[in-house]
């Protein structure tokens, strides 16, 4: 296993970062957002009046069109469960190298995989990030330690999958499709859900390093919970802005496969992670996608060959994930490969 960033920061009194973590160009400047990232009240979507639900669906439509990112509040996932999940993830990263070495996987779809950066086998510059990735649906997996990890992560992933399902149904409606169109077309009941835990330790030279570079996510929707340490930045109208989350909210972003299904109407958004000198940032992410064997193409109702021809070629979801995860992470390069 490559030396993790956590090991690097704890091994000595680190004053500067190793050369393999230095990016050749400084990141573009981050600006203050002129508008707040859209906020979606999940409770009103699922338990409000028909009028309130319709308004939330319209809010979602605007958020997907203009931002590709939104915050979900009142989502019903207990704050105590999120905090337990965060603490157990930190405990995993605190476990011994021998214990973690059991999960150093070579294939991107290994059930449990931990490592550093994104794909050190092909990268020339590493990211200031350690990770744990687990396939949790349709078949659930979990590391043996910490002992409570299995039960807590199972409950957490089940609850976030429910939130993602309701959001996908509402987004389906916002596109003018049947509420269950995406669920049926992409077989999301057996959809691939991946739990990704990211650890970004303090960095002595944050201006030279990147936690994660600009990229979009595979799948339909990504739900992100974080500790109180910021760092997420999103590309909005050509500018990088800091995405500061409200307490006990999920940051949610459109994935590449929602862009494909909507025939480019709702676009996946570039985002990146900056690091800092003072504190460790932890994020718990669930990537929610189609069934592994689903071939994702634009919805026929959103294609008019004269005015709106199909913009993407079909590809099995599993093949897309393997393609993205086996290469360097660079913008929307994977999606670009299947544009018509």
From TrEMBL:
<feature type="domain" description="Fe2OG dioxygenase">
    <location>
        <begin position="190"/>
        <end position="290"/>
    </location>
</feature>
<dbReference type="GO" id="GO:0046872">
    <property type="term" value="F:metal ion binding"/>
</dbReference>
<keyword id="KW-0408">Iron</keyword>
<dbReference type="InterPro" id="IPR027443">
    <property type="entry name" value="IPNS-like_sf"/>
</dbReference>
<dbReference type="InterPro" id="IPR050295">
    <property type="entry name" value="Plant_2OG-oxidoreductases"/>
</dbReference>
<dbReference type="GO" id="GO:0016491">
    <property type="term" value="F:oxidoreductase activity"/>
</dbReference>
<dbReference type="Pfam" id="PF14226">
    <property type="entry name" value="DIOX_N"/>
</dbReference>
<keyword id="KW-0560">Oxidoreductase</keyword>
<dbReference type="InterPro" id="IPR026992">
    <property type="entry name" value="DIOX_N"/>
</dbReference>
<protein>
    <recommendedName>
        <fullName>Fe2OG dioxygenase domain-containing protein</fullName>
    </recommendedName>
</protein>
<comment type="similarity">
    <text>Belongs to the iron/ascorbate-dependent oxidoreductase family.</text>
</comment>
<dbReference type="Pfam" id="PF03171">
    <property type="entry name" value="2OG-FeII_Oxy"/>
</dbReference>
<dbReference type="InterPro" id="IPR005123">
    <property type="entry name" value="Oxoglu/Fe-dep_dioxygenase_dom"/>
</dbReference>
<dbReference type="InterPro" id="IPR044861">
    <property type="entry name" value="IPNS-like_FE2OG_OXY"/>
</dbReference>
<keyword id="KW-0479">Metal-binding</keyword>
